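Practice problem 4.
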């Protein structure tokens, strides 16, 4: 790893182009007396992989929770494609095109693999409420469409042969891929993934890496929180580094690897 002469200065919060898809400015979040996120601003252009890295406890997952609606910020603003997100609940943000996976897998383990993905289509259902009671023609058409689309997503993540298995029976790596497929079922424009490579072996990480690349090629904007630096450096277009809840550095993967402040705080000299 090479080391540059001096760390780059923080980009202004207004750093922008017409392609900026998600913007966060001056985000703060405290839990009791602990400031988990302090004055974080970022701009995510459309159609890139934007990675967030930092040591354990740096505030990465808290920042993701603020953007996805799990938490509301104490201060600051978040805008997705011109729509203000602060004050909107998580399910409302999903309808705006924001989806996420979690560091701790959250599947419906008593349901089949296919039905887990079908559950992700619920925001697209546009049929009269009474159809859910009598299961009329509109319900049957919607249900068939959802299952067909869900199977395509299972094929995308390599789980089509396990469609009828219970989610609880899947190996850990396959559960990670199933959670990704379920998030994709919401037809997101912005996908947030929280440590998707955690607990995966080398082959599973490569499979994940390829899926992220394919999603980016299809125009999906992705925010990735990850400790696997090999994966981050291979797939990310921009990287934000956090430390103790604060901004430390932002740049390309090569710039991050060469920055002495990042090396000292995280990557190791």
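Answer key:
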């Amino acid at each position: 790893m090479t080391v540059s002469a001096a760390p780059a200065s923080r980009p202004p919060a207004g750093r922008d182009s017409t392609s900026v898809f998600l913007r966060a400015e001056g985000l703060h979040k405290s839990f009791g007396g602990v400031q988990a996120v302090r004055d974080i601003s970022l701009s995510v252009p459309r159609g890139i992989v934007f990675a967030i890295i930092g040591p354990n406890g740096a505030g990465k997952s808290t920042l993701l929770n603020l953007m996805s609606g799990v938490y509301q910020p104490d201060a600051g603003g978040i805008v997705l494609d011109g729509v203000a997100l602060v004050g909107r609940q998580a399910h409302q943000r999903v309808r705006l095109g924001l989806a996420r996976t979690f560091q701790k897998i959250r599947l419906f383990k008593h349901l089949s693999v296919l039905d887990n993905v079908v559950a992700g289509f619920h925001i697209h259902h546009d049929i009269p409420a009474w159809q859910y009671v009598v299961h009329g023609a509109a319900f049957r058409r919607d249900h068939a469409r959802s299952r067909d689309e869900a199977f395509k997503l299972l094929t995308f993540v390599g789980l089509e042969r396990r469609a009828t298995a219970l989610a609880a029976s899947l190996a850990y790596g396959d559960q990670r891929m199933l959670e990704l497929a379920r998030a994709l079922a919401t037809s997101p424009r912005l996908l947030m993934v929280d440590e998707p490579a955690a607990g995966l072996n080398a082959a599973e990480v490569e499979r994940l890496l390829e899926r992220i690349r394919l999603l980016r090629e299809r125009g999906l904007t992705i925010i990735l929180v990850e400790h696997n630096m090999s994966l981050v450096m291979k797939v990310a277009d921009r990287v934000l580094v956090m430390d103790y809840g604060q901004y430390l550095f932002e740049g390309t993967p090569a710039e991050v690897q060469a920055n002495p402040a990042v090396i000292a705080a995280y990557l190791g000299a």
